[in-house]
Amino acid sequence: MGTAHSGPSADKLSVVFAVHVIEGGEQGFLEMYDRIRKSVARTPGHIIDRLGEPADGSRQWVITSEWETPEHFFAWQQSEEHRSLVAPLRKWVDSTQSLRFRVVKETVRVKS
């Protein structure tokens, strides 16, 4: 059982970016992701980035990230560096979806 709490994390922004990778495009997509993650890791306000590989063969990959504030994320997303980094990604994906939300409650496992 976990403990729910709110607090400083409520200021953070979480982003879920789902991408459907074209058939045979996994290697190109992974190379592009590596370039993007190295850039985002140096971005002010960036906390963590995770890449999730589909476990069901669907080619639906998920990139999740956390940011100190929404303003940090939107500043990066609207930057010229971001636009030039993600433009080549379109070659490897045929659809994307982005969800952005503030964490209002968090449940952490209680160690017994």
TrEMBL record:
Q: Where are the transmembrane segments?
A: none
Report the residue ranges that make up the ABM domain in this protein.
Answer: 13-105
Is Oxidoreductase tagged as a keyword?
A: yes
Keyword list, A-Z: Monooxygenase, Oxidoreductase
- PROSITE patterns from the entry? ABM
UniProt-listed Pfam families: ABM
Look up the domain of life of the source.
Bacteria
One annotated GO molecular function: monooxygenase activity
Q: What is this protein called?
A: Antibiotic biosynthesis monooxygenase
Q: Write down the species.
A: Actinacidiphila oryziradicis
